[in-house]
Amino acid sequence: MNNADKNLIPVQALLIPKSILYIGKIVNWISPFLASRFAARIFLTPFGYKIPNREKRMYGKSKKEAVFIKKINRKVIVYHYGNSQKKILLVHGWSGRGTQLSKIADELLKQGYSTVSFDAPAHGDAPGKRSMMPHFIETVHQLEQNYGPFETAIGHSLGGMSLLRATKNGLQIKKLIIIGTANSITAIVKNFVKNLQLDEKVGTLLKAYFDKKYGEDLDNYSGAISAKEVKIPTLVIHDINDVDVHYSAAHEIVDNLENGNILITKELGHRKILGNQKVIAKIVEFILE
Asked: Are residues 178 and 234 in contact, defined by beta-carbon separation less than 8 angstroms?
């Protein structure tokens, strides 16, 4: 399968092993309720991948350290790339790693910035098997305490949603950039169940299970909800051909921002957009203006 074909397939559909899909179908046939519990376990399990060549330079040249995040009792791997005191925080998406935004980081270094990024729990080189959005958020807050202040934060996909929430809850940055970021937790769950090839009813049961487990409606974490309390200049970037997160999410988020800007691209999908030079140039322009 070539890269063009891969861009037409959601990341989850690419990474979930076929054996998991097969088991899920059997459990779904037996009981949608049991399938929802099976799906819950998979939902919280990021699937790793071999580090791409495009990320190896950043991986090799970064200073890496393991950092214990107190509030979640988990370790992450932090990457320090460059030596400037003007720092930008980078946050990867689900099943990503701290070098996922390497092309953006390389350009930021040329502009006199250094970057701080991390492998979230159970991602990249970080230990563990399961993770969740609150792990990303608490890591962001502790890294600000340890290494901030940050001039700007840039997040991809779930990383963008986590940064919206963290900014709402007090992350002190001057500007925010989110790329390919979902709005609705309900939509994320439904897409996940679809990629797992399970019935829609399983998605409804799965969302209800998570709401009960964590004691609140998880749609409170949705991008547009957080965006209502984000006052700083924010650039929302999304591709119209993103098969992981529909581009309507970008409009839903930007409509709730006090100072939001939007950039809609074409034919870059959910992942290729991170290395596009025109997108990176727009990011740099937004940071410098």
From this structure: yes
pLDDT per residue rounded down to tens, the chain (289 residues) = 445 445 555 555 556 678 888 888 888 888 989 999 988 888 888 887 789 999 999 999 999 999 999 999 999 999 999 999 999 999 999 999 999 999 999 999 999 999 999 999 999 999 999 999 999 999 999 999 999 999 999 999 999 999 999 999 999 999 999 999 998 888 888 888 888 888 889 989 999 998 998 888 888 888 999 999 999 999 999 999 998 899 999 999 999 999 999 999 999 999 899 999 999 999 999 999 8
Distances (CA, A) of 111 to 236, 279, 280, 289: 21, 15, 12, 13
Is 91 within the bounds of a domain? yes
CA distance 62 to 199: 44
Q: How many domains does the chain have?
A: 1
Domain boundaries, position 264: 52-184+216-288
DSSP secondary structure string for all residues of 45-109: -----PPPHHHHHHHHHSEEEEEEEGGGTEEEEEEEES--SSEEEEE--TT--TTTTHHHHHHHH
47 domain residue, yes or no: no
Beta bridge partners of residue 238, listed in sequence order: 264
Order of all β-strands in the sheet with 175-179: 63-69, 74-81, 114-119, 87-91, 152-156, 175-179, 234-239, 260-265
> Helices 102-110 and 53-61, interaxial angle, to 10°?
50
CATH number of the domain encompassing residue 63: 3.40.50.1820
10 in any annotated domain? no
Q: Cα separation of 140 and 153, whole Å?
A: 10
Establish if 165 belongs to a structural domain: yes
Predicted structure pTM score? 0.91
